[in-house]
Amino acid sequence: MGIVTPTNKEISTLTGLHLYHGGMSNCSMRVRMTLEEKDLPWTSHHLDLRKAENTTPEYFGIHPKGLVPTLVHDGVVIIESTDIIDYLDETFPAPPLRPADAAEQQTMLEWMRLAAANHIHVKVYMFANQIGRKLAKTENELAAYRTLQHNEELLKFHEENSSAQGLSKERVANATSVLNDCFTEIERTLGDREWLAGDVFSLADITWVPLYVTLNNAKFPFAAYPNIVRWKDAVRSRPSYQKAVLDWVPQDLLRD
C-alpha cells in the first residue's frame, strides 16, 4: 500500500477524505471515478499542472515525487493511484468495485499492475503529441525542480522534454510500440466480455479508461480498436465518468 509519512505535518490534521489532484491527470481521474462510484464525500484540493502548482516545497512535503493524486484519509497519506483506489475499495467496500470470483480478482490486479508499469509510456506519448511544449520548463524552473525532485526517472524526463530537441524520437517510438501492444491485448480481451476483469465493472476498468482519455486527447489511433471504443462508450455512460472526467478535464485538452 502506498502509505507515506509526509514532511508537511499540517496534513496530519485533516479529517475525512481529501484529494490532491489535477484535472487533466489520468491518475487523478481514476481516484475521482472511484470516489464517485462509491458516492463518497471528499474535499478537493485541485492543482493546476499547467501552472506547475504541484512543484512547490509545500506539495513535495505531501507527495515525495510531486505527483498527483494524493489521498489523505483522516491524516493518513496515500500515493500511487492504483494503491489509492484499491485502498478505497477495501476501506469502503460498498458498492464493491472488484469481482467476487478470486480468479477474476487476480485478473483485475494484473490489469492494474500493467497500467501502473506503463505510466511513463503514457506520459511520453501525451507529452510528445499534445502538451510537451506547453509544459517545458525554463532553465530557472529546471533548477528549482532539481532542488525538489529526487526521482532520477522524472528528472531525466523533464530535462529531456524541456530541451531544445524535446523528447527523443527513439523514446517516443518505444512508448508507442509498448502502448500498441497493451491495447492490442485489451482489444483481444474485450472480444468476448463486457469488462476487463469479467462480467462486472471493476477497478481494472477504472484504471484503464483514463489512459484511453489521455491518449485519445493526444490522438492515439483508437479507431483501430473497435472493442475498446465500445468499452469506452459503456464507461462514458456511467455518471461517475461525467463527474470525474468531463467535469474536470480542461475543455481545450479534451477530444470526444
Q: Order of strands in the sheet with the most strands?
A: 1-5-4-2-3
Q: Note the overall shape.
A: globular
Structural class: alpha+beta
What is the strand tally? 5
Beta-strand share of residues: 5-15%
Oligomer: single chain
| CATH class membership of the largest domain | Mainly Alpha
| Distance, first to last CA | 34 Å
Low-confidence stretches: none
Averaged pLDDT, please?
A: 96
Rg computed from alpha carbons, rounded to a whole number of angstroms: 18 Å
The major pleated sheet works out as:
5 strands, mixed
Reported CATH architecture of the largest domain: Up-down Bundle
Number of domains: 2
Helix content: 40-55%
Number of helices: 11
Helices and strands, in order, run as EEHEHEEHHHHHHHHH
CATH topology of the largest domain: Glutathione S-transferase Yfyf (Class Pi), Chain A, domain 2
Index terms:
5 strands; 256 residues; globular; 11 helices; 2 domains; alpha+beta; Glutaredoxin; Glutathione S-transferase Yfyf (Class Pi), Chain A, domain 2
Structure report:
By secondary structure, the chain is of the alpha+beta class. Helix content is 51%, strand content 7%. It has helices at residues 26-37, 57-60, 81-91, 102-117, 119-131, 139-148, 152-161, 169-189, 203-217, 226-236, 239-246, and strands at 3-4, 17-21, 43-46, 70-73, 76-79. Strands 1-5-4-2-3 form a 5-stranded mixed β-sheet, covered by helices on one side. The radius of gyration is 18 Å and the shape is globular. The protein starts with a strand and ends in a 10-residue tail after the last helix.
